[in-house]
C-alpha cells in the first residue's frame, strides 16, 4: 500500500493480502503453489520474481482497532482493494510506536505528503493505542500533504 500511495517513492518486495471472505490461508497458499509458487515460512515465493506474498490472518485491523476505511483502486488489470491513506499512515505509525522502526515513520510521512490524511483520526487512534504523547511529538511531520483534513 505504501508503494502505491507514494507512487513508488518507497518500494517493498512483500505483498500482503488479508482474506476477508472466509478462505483459509492454507487454501490460498495451495492455489499459489499450483501457479508455480513455493511455500517459504509464512510467505510464498516464485522463482521468476523478487516479490514474496503472504496472507496474514484477519480481521483487518491497525493496532487494537478494526480498519475503518477501504478504498477500491482501478488499474488496467482490475480492481485492488486497499486500506485508505489515513489507515495506511496509522498502520505504519503502529510499527513506529511499538518497535521504533524509523523506516515505518518515514513511510507514514511519505504517504501523508502524497495524500489527504485525517490527522484528527490519526490523533484519536494514537490516544486509543496509548501513544497520544508520541503522536504529538511527530504530528508536525505528517502535516505537509495536499488538502489535509482536520
Span of the ends, CA to CA: 23 Å
How many distinct beta strands? Answer: 8
Major beta sheet, specifics? 4 strands, mixed
- Summing up helix and strand content along with how strands pair, one would put the structural category as alpha+beta
Describe the global form: globular
Overall average residue pLDDT: 91
Secondary structure: helix percent: 25-40%
The protein's oligomeric status is: single chain
Strand order of the largest sheet: 1-4-3-2
Unreliable spans:
none
What's the gyration radius in Å?
16 Å
In short, what is this structure?
With 150 residues, the chain is α+β, with helices and mostly antiparallel strands. It has helices spanning 2-5, 25-34, 85-99, 102-114, 119-128, 132-138, and strands at residues 14-16, 38-40, 43-45, 52-54, 61-62, 65-66, 70-75, 78-83. It is built from six helices and eight strands; from the N terminus they run αβαβββββββαααα.
